[in-house]
Every structure is written in structure tokens, then in C-alpha cells.
Design brief:
The structure is a single chain. By secondary structure, this protein is of the alpha+beta class. Helices cover 21% and strands 30% of the residues.
Length: 149
């Protein structure tokens, strides 16, 4: 298998900074990860596990991510592209990070990235469609049938 594709339904959560606060009783700084980030990572992992390759991809990869975000009530209905926050790079990071050791060894293997940030409209609910493909050194998608010949 040189390609996997899956969909994670729900509002995509952008990467968030680790939150730091000072414990009022001890005066020591404490760090925590917001629960929404943990839940989103778990959702991405669960969907990826359903379609994961037998062994994680080890070579160069192309990732195609299509985000469908909820449309704000203030936006005109004809708008297609979600050109406001959240930033696309933070959305991408929070989809690729949970895929470590499931789909690939490390997200540094992603050498080609195509990403869309659209508004969910009509029958299309908020979701992200994830496609990860192995590519060869020429930047072309690997074709298992050709490799067998």
C-alpha cells in the first residue's frame, strides 16, 4: 500500500501552545495541554489506525489535507475559502503530529504538502480529509504495480 486516505469528522483544532500557569499553593509553574488538543489528536489517531499501512511509511511522502471549517454566521454564503483564523500551518501540524509511528516514522518525511482550507457548507460537515502517499526520488507517486514489473 503506497497511499492511505481517511476523514476525521468534526471541527479541526489548530496547534495550541502549551499552557503555563503558576500553582497558587506552591508558587511553582505548571504546564498543561488543553483537553481539546488531546481529544483532536485521539480522533486523528483513531481514524488513521483504521487505514494504516502494515508498517509505517519510511521514505519521502506527499500529504494532501483538505480542511472544511464551520462558516461564521457573519460570512456571506458565497464565500468558499476560509481566509481567516485559524492559520493553516497550525491546522496541518495538529493533523500530522498524531500520525507519528502510525502512518509514518516522522512528519519530516513529508516533502510535498498540498493543503486547502474551505468552509463547510450544505451537506458537507466540518471535517478534514487526509491523504498520504509515498513518492519516489523524482517526486512522482509510487505505483506498486509498476514496481512489481
Amino acid at each position: 500500500m503506497s497511499r492511505i486516505e481517511f476523514t476525521v469528522f468534526g471541527k479541526a483544532i489548530p496547534k495550541q501552545s502549551t499552557k503555563i500557569f503558576v500553582n497558587q499553593h506552591t508558587g511553582k509553574p505548571r504546564c498543561y495541554t488543553p483537553q481539546t488538543k488531546i481529544d483532536w489528536h485521539n480522533d486523528v489517531r483513531m481514524e488513521a489506525i483504521r487505514v494504516k499501512p502494515e508498517t509505517p511509511f519510511t521514505g519521502p511522502l506527499m500529504a494532501i489535507l483538505t480542511f472544511y471549517l464551520p462558516m461564521p454566521k457573519s460570512k456571506p454564503k458565497w464565500k468558499k475559502y476560509a481566509d481567516k483564523k485559524p492559520d493553516i500551518d497550525n491546522l496541518v501540524k495538529n493533523v500530522l503530529d498524531p500520525l507519528h509511528n502510525i502512518v509514518f516514522d516522522n512528519d519530516s518525511q513529508v516533502v510535498c504538502l498540498k493543503t486547502y482550507k474551505l468552509y463547510a457548507k450544505g451537506l458537507v460537515p466540518p471535517q478534514v480529509i487526509v491523504c498520504i502517499e509515498e513518492i519516489d526520488e523524482k517526486g512522482e507517486v509510487k505505483d506498486e504495480e509498476k514496481e512489481k514489473e
